[in-house]
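Hi V.,

You were right to ask for the full record rather than a summary. Here it is.
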Amino acid sequence: LRHASGTTQMCVTCHTDVAASLSLPSHHPTKEGMLDCTSCHSPHESRRMTLGARTTLCTGCHESEAGPWIYEHAPVTEDCGYCHAPHGTSARNLLSSSEPGVCVSCHSLPEMGATHDPQAYTTRCSDCHSAVHGSFADPHLRR
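Predicted structure:
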């Protein structure tokens, strides 16, 4: 992490697991020096989180994902961490696992099987359900 800020370099001397995550293919631009650990974390504040605090932290920068939406995807309003790993992942868009795995972790196959062709499970859910954070027009989050 030679291009990371001095603050980040100091933090990762102890948080080696985070340093490893920041080197994965999909990551916030921390190792490039565009963000540092204190962009999201405050080491001198309470570690307790209030309901919605993590999502509020994320939507401070990612405003377009915040809604409110007419048709909301419940995990988005509760905690971005249900689907995303903020330090870094090998899946695209900081997803905690690749699609459809990340979706199937909450949406059961029997629940979806009634409306989906078996081939649907060989592709990304977001190819059809592109409004994964929420929609103004479609309750199935297709747009």
